[in-house]
Amino acid sequence: MVKGANGKEEERERAQCNYCEADYAGDSKNCGTSTLWSHIEHKCKQCPFSTYVQKHTKQGMITDYFTKTIQDSEVNSSKTRTSMFSQATVRELIGKYFIIGELPFRHIEGKGFRLLVSHFFPTFEFPSRVTIARDIYQLFLEEKKNLRKAFVNRRLSLTTDCWTSIQSISYMCLTAQWIDDSWKMQKRIISFIQVPSHKGDMVAKELINCINQWGITQLFSIRVDNASSNDVALRKVKEYLTERDKALVLDGEMFHMRCCAHILNLVVNDGFKDMSYVISSIRNAVRYVRSSPARLKQFREASLKYKSVFKYMEGDVYYTKYFEEERVNGEKLDGPPEASDWSNAEVFVKFLNSFYQLTLKFSGSLYVTSNLFFQEILQVQVELNDMKASKDELISKMAGSMQLKFNKYWGNVEKVNLLEYIASILDPRFKLDVVRNGFRYFYDAITAEIMIKKVKNMMTRLYAFYQKIVVLPNSSNDQQATENATFKFNASSSSTSFLIKLRFVSSEVATNDLDDYLNDRKEKLLDNVDFDILDWWKRNSSKYPIVSHIAKDVLAVQISSVASELAFFTGGRILDPFRNSLSPKTVEALICSKNSLTWQFIQARP
């Protein structure tokens, strides 16, 4: 009620601000709510969107919007937490949030997301999905700038991997590995580019373009899969780089390296061919049982009554009838599996598990893998020999097929990059012993001695190359490493017991730090004890100044070109539908940036 012009009280509508409770005339006939809206937009001190609030937060800082009181129910005390706000910082964090979560850009328009951000940052101005894409690309460019600085005067190793979109568009992923000055393993995806095809000439062209764009002046090796097109590509890249002074080590003799995880997968696949009937019949049996809830229930109940589920399935009349009647493309299904099939499958699964664990180890990206190659391959050869000696004809035949594929890539030492052996020499637990005795296990005495001499000669040449380019400090080797320390590396007990047999004491005369390293006492090889090879070289780098530089480049080489989750597939990797709908430039920014952020999180761990 308000007084009118005649002094009488009249009932008029008023409009009240929900933020500060100020009220204004709101009669729809005379003034409406324009006065209230003017107050909210320009004068209200409580509305986070008013120009008054915007004016007082013009400098980009506000300290009172994020104050939170945390009540302690036990002691009845309170604490206040204040955070500083910056529009640019929040946008950067949102960009990283989108990258890490692999979120579509339309997520920025989601009501729930906006509600959450507005609660903590009331004055935040939400960017559009286009702006978010630009922010992410800017993050990629900034990280690229930082990496270019890190690559200056540093020798890198690269791995390539081929991807395909659901539209059959080819992509090439290029990853750089190196060990930094703190002796920490570093690995970054530096390029994810669209290529017209995966042919050798095209791959070589894109590799050279990428090397030039990143300003990479020194390369140690490139790891690729076993496609013949990659042989052509690396030959052309090598020819291009040999024209540069000291761009390659020893003119690129050890430049081309093959993906070990991919080869291991090919070896196992040859074993699958001999077990195809057994595997198919068991799969059909499982498919039959799982095709009906009633059948699955009956199977589970029977498995509790019978000591062997296999005997139950073998004797099931209806089960056998299924294989006689069901046909695929007019052909009878494989099965039912017999008792011998189950026993063979059990042996095969145990054998496959060792290959599975080895593939995981080969394709690891957070630790050094190059020093694992030779000793693990020796272990595979031991297991293949045991399987070939099996009394079971199928198991023996399967091992023989796998041995043929194994010999194709690793049986002929002339085809194996000598760098694989040198990496084992640079493991202070093995040094020359594992190579010397490993060759004697693999080959006849004459061939073994030839290979031992060949590897030692390459190690000497490698040392001579680094001796010319490494600038040694003036101080002498006065900082000796402590002998007793805690190391990191899980050595499986089975392989450890085998490797211990490969060690013996050497007694050669030392003339330089390479001879010192080879003749000094080896580190103990213990079961279930972690060994951090990079930490060992960090602590002993002053003792072996030139050899440590060799170790830094050799141990940075990864023996697989794919991540562990992709190591079990020989087909190309496929881009997901979200990334497939984006421009190639944006796809590269997302993939490279996520890889970089992931490594930042890993290194930030205590």
Automatic annotation (TrEMBL):
Annotated InterPro entries: hAT-like_transposase_RNase-H, HATC_C_dom, RNaseH-like_sf, Znf_BED, ZnF_BED_domain_contain
Occurrences of domain HAT C-terminal dimerisation (ranges): 514-596
SUPFAM superfamilies listed in its UniProt record: Ribonuclease H-like
Compartments, as annotated in UniProt: Nucleus
GO molecular function, one term: zinc ion binding
Residue ranges occupied by any BED-type domain in the UniProt entry: 12-45
Keywords linked to the UniProt accession: DNA-binding, Metal-binding, Nucleus, Transcription, Transcription regulation, Zinc, Zinc-finger
A cellular component term, taken from the record's GO annotations: nucleus
UniProt key word Zinc-finger: yes
Main localization, broad class: nucleus
Domain hAT-like transposase RNase-H fold: 363-466
Subunit structure: Homodimer.
Protein name, as recorded: Transposase
